[in-house]
Amino acid sequence: MPATRLDVALLAYTPEPLALVYAAFRQCYHAGFVADMWPRLLAGEISREKQAEFVAGVISSGHVSPIEHVSFTFAVEGVSRALTHQLVRHRIASYSQQSQRYVDASSFDYVLPPAIARIPEAKARYEHFMAQVADAYRDLKDILETNGRGTKAKEDARFVLPQAAETRIVVTMNCRALFNFFEHRCCARAQWEIRALADKMLALCRMTLPEVFTTAGAKCERLGHCPEGAKFTCGKYPPAKS
Amino acid sequence: MPATRLDVALLAYTPEPLALVYAAFRQCYHAGFVADMWPRLLAGEISREKQAEFVAGVISSGHVSPIEHVSFTFAVEGVSRALTHQLVRHRIASYSQQSQRYVDASSFDYVLPPAIARIPEAKARYEHFMAQVADAYRDLKDILETNGRGTKAKEDARFVLPQAAETRIVVTMNCRALFNFFEHRCCARAQWEIRALADKMLALCRMTLPEVFTTAGAKCERLGHCPEGAKFTCGKYPPAKS
Amino acid sequence: MPATRLDVALLAYTPEPLALVYAAFRQCYHAGFVADMWPRLLAGEISREKQAEFVAGVISSGHVSPIEHVSFTFAVEGVSRALTHQLVRHRIASYSQQSQRYVDASSFDYVLPPAIARIPEAKARYEHFMAQVADAYRDLKDILETNGRGTKAKEDARFVLPQAAETRIVVTMNCRALFNFFEHRCCARAQWEIRALADKMLALCRMTLPEVFTTAGAKCERLGHCPEGAKFTCGKYPPAKS
Amino acid sequence: MPATRLDVALLAYTPEPLALVYAAFRQCYHAGFVADMWPRLLAGEISREKQAEFVAGVISSGHVSPIEHVSFTFAVEGVSRALTHQLVRHRIASYSQQSQRYVDASSFDYVLPPAIARIPEAKARYEHFMAQVADAYRDLKDILETNGRGTKAKEDARFVLPQAAETRIVVTMNCRALFNFFEHRCCARAQWEIRALADKMLALCRMTLPEVFTTAGAKCERLGHCPEGAKFTCGKYPPAKS
């Protein structure tokens, strides 16, 4: 029942993502059929640089929908139910999450917030409490099973599990949804845990498809100023005048 | 810090919902403009019965999208974070939820599962544990504030709050999304808490717009058989043969 | 078979929209239950000004989701199929459109682009062509009916109808989707016809819910600069430096 | 300016689609982390048959969301604007369509409905009309350019283009959206053109991921009866009793 740590794996992404985004953009303005151009794209007849330049130009003009054709699928562990409750509020995405109704949590792991980890007194209090939770979960599961609740015992016992309880989730988002996710969650004002997740996801996206994700991140990185206003800004960029 | 109970209030819904659904359906098949028909609809020139009959006929033929034009907004309290985590997985909807980052939870209320409430030993264990949670939350919040975490103390302390912790949420869904929600969540296989919520929401919808919601509910109510299969059926309807 | 003109009617909107948006925002930050506050809101105990100020403050800080709880339903006529094909690309919305498969188009009306209307030679050519379309539609429908195609004759004959052919559509969008729609379609770079529609819809929204729609419109109106870049800007606002 | 014919190319799909769907399903019920299982899946340690059996079992129990993690991207040509206007009504999808504002249509191709092709008189009338359209388009474009409308001439001239005018579009849908698309559009009641597209897309999906798409198609194929009712059924399956 130890504290856990964030782990993000990129399970899959749409193959040839730059070529696909390029082809989708081209179809909008081009008299021919991109399926005819596709084999030449895969054969490298149009250079990656040229594709990237075209894509960057159209995106910067505000036409972003073609990046939706490319999706990324991540497997995430070492995150809390507090995080996933926030995460699944992003509606243009697909989720498959470990179920507390079906998976036994008798020896659940938990997320330890850094601010608590840094203060020995807080950390001790937190760890002491997590042991109390595990006791309560096991006790309740036992009592419920003894009283004939069968496989539903987990379903009721889990009401004692903390927001901190570790969960695992598979997440698929397309590039446009990812841009939106990063705008909100890479911001210094985002809650620390989901921000750490967003930063890791962005790093994986940048590694895989740098030509598209170069401008992704908190809103300020793209705008050059902070839209959160003077009261809330982290100070990295000057706030927008109003 | 007592156990709480489910409360659902219908804050708002699209006015003249039957007439609006009727008008939207008519626009699909009608040569004229429904805005010209609208004042006559509001004046009652086409009877409610006739509108209902037309709407029921088109819905039963599989053309359901016009019911999307009508939305319902509910305010919900007395539900757990376990419930809202399931609820917000319904993506064609809008949510505004009480934030554990901003609202102090020192004397949080909690949901008591009926199966636990029925067993005195389980109930005592559960209540004892909830008092431990409140202690842990307050202790951690104190320590964090003492150590300069300020308004962020709540954000970290809430990691100890249980899935059972009460939350409040405002939910808007259109009728089509509500039909889908009821199909899944009014089923006897749905988890008890979200099923209780779905039943209350359905009762409010039926009271407000009976002509449309008469066929809403668990899938079996409409199909006349149970699509969950022989292994999972509750027995109310015979399972589908396969 | 004359040229038609744009008509937009606001059929319905969520009642008490400012109070509902205010209540949804308050639920996020408030320890109590907004359903308890709701009767007092309806009774005017919190002034419209105070509600508007609160709502404007939260929106400007970037928290906009609560405006989704309010929806507007418009009936639109005098628009072309070219327009509705663009319109229905806005996916967070509900549509009920007049069907060319079911509604006879023998004497269809059509949209006359202003640039064509302004040039007598172009206008004459356009009108001459529209008469040719009507002839072709009727001829084909006759031939198909004579050859036993029955009610499907309309379905095939409509292939000759022009993009200009008038259509009617019922559209529901929530406020957040409307903001997005206006950002793109009230811009001077938008195509003239959908821009005219967007301008009319915005005027109706502003009349109904001025407190929320005061900042809606093309992106530049909110930003104070033009994000389309030096090459595409209409010049109303200075382009963003890059 | 000849009649065109439908062409559908599968540009891309999520790699290892069966393994990904299997992994996402497993994450819901499994105590471990699917990222740890992933290399073993790719190495073939769990047979395709076993994966398929597990996936089929969970889908048939009504739990379908994990198939959303896999997307397919098609390039489509030889279809009419009538078709794409229907197609883009499917909102859980991404589209990049050839623009009539930017692409010159002076020698546009067009879709010829089979019912018209089969009747020589109808075919001749149709072809005669298409030549009239091309004349009108070129005349109007010329007049508008002569009168200083510049690159906007295409934008206005296209109002004369018929619903039959060929367009090209890149479409991405996830498997769950594809199932829904096939349910509606592979039905004998669907309009012939979009049904032909749906049939081709389904054939490509079945070839690529047979384990998942085996049960996809018109609703009747899965239900074993026709839900369209006695009045509308094509007769392939008996209508549902009501």
Task: Offer a few descriptive terms.
homotetramer; about 240 residues; alpha+beta; Gyrase A, domain 2; four-stranded antiparallel β-sheet; 4 strands; about 10% strand; elongated
How much of the polypeptide of chain A forms β-strand, as a percent range? Answer: 5-15%
SSE order of chain A, one letter for each helix or strand = EHHHEHEHHHEHHHH
Mean pLDDT of chain A: 94
Q: So what's the CATH class of the largest domain in chain A?
A: Alpha Beta
Strand order, biggest sheet of chain A? 1-2-4-3
Calculate the terminal CA-CA distance of chain A, rounded to whole Å: 50 Å
Please name the two chains that share the biggest interface, counting residues whose Cβ lies under 8 Å from a Cβ on the partner chain: A-B, 45 and 45 residues
Description:
- The structure is a homotetramer of 242-residue chains.
- Chain A has 242 residues and is of the alpha+beta class.
- Chain A folds into 2 domains: 8-75 and 167-223, Gyrase A, domain 2 (2-Layer Sandwich); 111-163, no CATH class.
- Chain A is built from 11 helices and 4 strands, in the order βαααβαβαααβαααα.
- Chain A has helices spanning 17-29, 34-42, 48-60, 81-87, 114-117, 120-146, 153-157, 175-185, 192-208, 210-213, 219-223, and strands spanning 7-13, 71-80, 94-97, 166-174.
- A 4-stranded antiparallel β-sheet of chain A has the order 1-2-4-3.
- In chain A, α1 packs antiparallel against α2 (34-42).
- The radius of gyration of chain A is 23 Å and the shape is elongated.
- Chain A binds chain B through residues 80-82, 84-85, 88-89, 91-92, 95, 100-101, 110-111, 113, 115-116, 119, 121-122, 125-126, 128-129, 132-133, 136, 139-140, 143-144, 147, 149, 152, 155-156, 158-165, 191, and chain B through 80-82, 84-85, 88-89, 91-92, 95, 100-101, 110-111, 113, 115-116, 119, 121-122, 125-126, 128-129, 132-133, 136, 139-140, 143-144, 147, 149, 152, 155-156, 158-165, 191.
